Amino acid sequence: MAATLDQIFILLRNWLTGFLPGALRPVANVLLSVVAIVCVFPGLFALTTVFERKGLARIQNRLGPNRVGPFGFFQPIADGIKSLTKEDIVPSSANAAVHFLAPLVLVVTVFMGFAVLPMGRNMALVDMDAGLLFFFAMGASTELSVFMAGWSSRNKYSLMGAMRAVAQMISYEVVLLLSSVAVVMISGSLSLEKIVDAQSHFSGIFPNWYIFTPWGFAGFVMFAIAATAETNRSPFDLPEGESELVAGYHTEYSGFKFALFFLGEYLAMFSISGLGTTLFLGGWSAPFSFLTWVPSWIWFFGKVMTSIFVFIWMRGTLPRLRQDQLMNFAWKFVLPFTLLDLMDTALWRFMGEGWQRWVLCSAILAGAFAMMGRLGMRKKHFGPRSYRYAE
Amino acid sequence: MSVAFYLIAALTLAGGLAAVLLKNTVHCALALTVAFAGLALLFLQLDAQFAGFAQILVYIGAVAILVVFAILLTRGSDTPKDGVFSQSWLVGLVIAAGVFAVLGWAVIESVRVLPQETATPAVTVHDIGNALVGRYVLPLEIVALLLTAATIGAVIVAMHEKERSR
Question: B1-77: which CATH architecture?
Answer without folding.
Answer: Up-down Bundle (1.20)
